[in-house]
Amino acid sequence: IAKKSVPWEIIQDLNVESFLEPIPKKKITQKVCEKLGNVLGNNEYKITNLNMTWNKIGLKGIQALQTGLIVTKNLKSLEFYSNFIINEGATIFGDIIANNTSIENLNITDCKMIDKDGLEILKGLRRNRTLKCIWMEENKFGDKFAKEFWYFLKNNNTLEEVSVAQTSMSYFDCDVLTKNTTLKVLDLSSNSFGRLGIELAIGIMNNNTLEKLNLNWCSLRDKDLEELLFSMIKEGSDEYVLTIQKEKPLNVHLFGSFM
Predict the structure, then answer these.
(1) Are 78 and 104 in contact (CB under 8 A)?
(2) What CA–CA distance (Å, rounded) separates 186 from 207?
(3) What distances in angstroms separate CA 99 from CA 18, 104, 258, one per listed residue?
(4) If DSSP codes are grouped into helix, strand and coil, which group holds residue 253?
């Protein structure tokens, strides 16, 4: 985003020329959040990418950004990595997701969320029709959130890429692979799912849209499943990235999952 695309006072405050790179740490004050909210709400300014990574933004900052993030018609990508989407802030953020009609890529990795916060985000996802990619890695989601999330994803028809890597999940519904018809990338890595059994293999074979399934370090601990998956691979596949031979090949990442 060129300087001329946004009011000079915001550029001056943030000391950056582009919102594609993270706005520097400690630059996101309450005042700056309010200004950003106002600019986002003024669709005269064509802000399409906003990176607010690592700024410890909490409730007050989210409140200041809320209206702007809802009414913007131009924003396509929001990087909100390593901030605080918790308690009331999660409720507000869920409302933003529900009502925004432009954002396609959303990164809310490491936002200190637990089950109850994730469920607020999920309320927004159920109503959203424009998101294509969402990354929610490194939050602390348990089975309560996981069960609701996988039920949602089975019936969702807009998301193309989802990552819940390293979120402490221990539950995965293999029906997601069978019933979802839009996902191209699903990252489940570094969660302890245990024995997913034959249902995982069936889901893989019945899915017609996935291009990449990341199961690295998922503690699958299932010798029969391991043998079955390896029997399905295309000749010449890498040992830890299996290319499942189907009408549309699927790469399954399994490093460390059967150790």
Answers:
(1) no
(2) 12
(3) 26, 13, 42
(4) strand
Distance (Å, rounded) from C-alpha 22 to C-alpha 186?
Answer: 25
Residue pair 218/192 in contact by the 8 Å Cβ criterion: yes
Which region, left, alpha or beta, applies to residue 200 given φ > 0 means left and ψ of -120 to 50 means alpha? alpha
The model's pLDDT over 165-208, given as tens digits with 9 standing for 90+, comes to 999 999 999 999 999 999 999 999 999 988 887 888 888 888 88
First to last CA, the chain: 46
Single out the residue of 194, 205, 193 nearest to residue 229, CA to CA. 205
Query: Contact 219/188 with Cβ under 8 angstroms?
Result: no
pLDDT tens digits for 106-160? Answer: 999 999 999 999 999 999 999 999 999 999 999 999 999 999 999 999 999 999 9
| pLDDT, tens digit, 9 for 90 and up, residues 15-43 | 443 455 556 555 667 778 888 888 888 87
CB atoms within 10 A of CB 227: 11
Indicate the residue type of 57: I
Does residue 83 contact residue 56 with C-beta atoms inside 8 Å?
A: yes
Q: How many Å apart are CA 185 and CA 207, to the nearest integer?
A: 12
| pLDDT tens column, 98-118 | 999 999 999 999 999 999 999
What are the structure tokens assigned to 109, written together? 């990795």
Cα separation of 5 and 162, whole Å? 31
